[in-house]
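User:
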Amino acid sequence: MLIPKRQELLHELVPTASIVAMLVNPTAAQTQSELRDVQQAANRLGQQLRVLNASTDRELDAAFATIIDQRIGGLLVQADPFFTGRRDQLVLLTTRHAIPTVVAFREFVTAGGLMSYGTSLRAAYCQLGIYAGRILKGEKPGNLPVQQATAFETVVNLRAAKALGVTIPTAILLRADEVIE
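Assistant: Predicted structure:
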C-alpha cells in the first residue's frame, strides 16, 4: 500500500491539484494492482487520476507532453526499473516543467527530485547480504523465511521545492526521515 501513501503525500504537497497523474510501465506485472490502489486513493481524495503509460523513451516524452498540455498538478512515478534507469531524465523533466513529483526511492531526491516515500534500499541490501552470508555458510535458500520490507523512509529536497515553487508543509517536514537543504 505504498502507492496510496505516496498519493496522500502528493495531495498534502499540492492540495489544490484536482488532476494528478501516475506514470506507469504498462509491461510491469504490478501495474494493474497498483493502478487499482491509486485510483481508490484518488477517489477518496477527490482527485482525477490520469494514467500515463511509458515503456520507451518516446512514450516517456509523450507522457510529459500530456502532463504539460493537460496542466496536471502533480505526478506519481511507479517504482519500476524503466523509470529508475531514467532517474536523471525524470528529475530534469519534472524540474523544467515545475511538476511536483513523489517517487519511490531516495535516489531520485538526492539527484534533485522533490520527494520520495518507499522502502529503504539500503536496508534491503543489508538484508540481502545477510541472506547471502547464510546461504554461503550452508543454509538452503528454501529454508530461509520470506522477508518483507519493514523500513520505510520519506526524503524531501527543499532545493527542489524552491525551484518548483512548492512549500513543503510542516507536517511533512516533521515526518521526513531526511530533509535535503
